[in-house]
Design a protein that fits this description.
This protein has helices at residues 2-5, 8-30, 34-37, 45-60, 66-70, 72-91, 93-103, 112-135, 137-140, 145-165, 171-188, 196-213. Helix 4 crosses helix 12. The chain has 225 residues and is an all-alpha fold.
């Protein structure tokens, strides 16, 4: 079973994950229309690229934008989860070994202690996000079963992986659960709201180009509208 889920099934999972993301990216870019968006994306590439890079950078920095500073508590738990959600899957030593064995890729790894700490922070942050959805009326009213399902899908690989590493219970059971829930997460990303792992950069770049070219950028300076 282990050989199957870390071999053929993993190949299928990565194919669906990467193929699905590629399709979504192409579909998004082809859907841009400067007449509808009122942003001549190709007319001012330098101003557009600068605006896109600026937008992405400041939204990736904790408290880098006014929106992050307005709600410091949410910002802390948001970054607490997402920093772990990026660094641990990409640079966990066990994942690096698996990539080397199955795909022949030499991959850097972070110390196990740091990975454990980041995982714990991510799980606690996810619990805080769930509590926020319950406790704040303005968030609770727009939360559906779909949102809860995505929280579970996003959290299970971290919980199962942490339990396995801590050797709480049957290690073989928890490591298999970790692998399967991780693969479920990867397959879900292109087809759900979890697509924001890539969609974030696309939308922030589009909005940054909007501001960099039109709103406060080249507005009033030889613009075609």
């Amino acid at each position: 079973m282990y050989e199957f889920i870390t071999g053929p099934l993993l190949w299928v999972v990565f194919a669906v994950f990467l193929g699905g993301l590629a399709y979504r990216v192409v579909w998004y870019v082809k859907g841009l229309n400067w007449q509808l968006d009122r942003v001549a994306y190709s007319a001012f590439p330098a101003a557009g690229a600068k605006g896109a890079a600026r937008s992405i950078f400041y939204w990736l920095v904790p408290f880098g934008t006014r929106s992050w500073r307005v709600k410091p508590g949410f910002t802390a738990i948001f970054f607490g989860f997402h920093i772990g959600a990026v660094l641990v899957p990409l640079f966990l030593a066990g994942h690096a070994v698996l990539l080397k064995e199955r795909f022949g890729l030499a991959w850097p790894a972070i110390p196990q202690g740091l990975a454990d700490w980041l995982t714990a922070v991510a799980v606690v942050s996810l619990v805080c996000i769930a509590v926020r959805r319950i406790s704040l009326p303005e968030v609770r009213i727009v939360t559906t079963w779909y949102d809860w399902l995505l929280l579970v899908i996003a959290g299970l690989p971290f919980v199962t992986g942490f339990v396995a590493v801590m050797h709480w219970g049957d290690y073989q059971f928890w490591i298999m659960a970790h692998i399967l829930t991780g693969e479920l997460l990867l397959v879900s990303i292109p087809f759900t709201k979890l697509y924001h792992v890539v969609g974030f950069f696309l939308t922030r770049a589009q909005l940054g180009m909007d501001f960099g070219i039109k709103r406060g950028g080249r507005k009033g300076r030889n613009m075609p509208w």
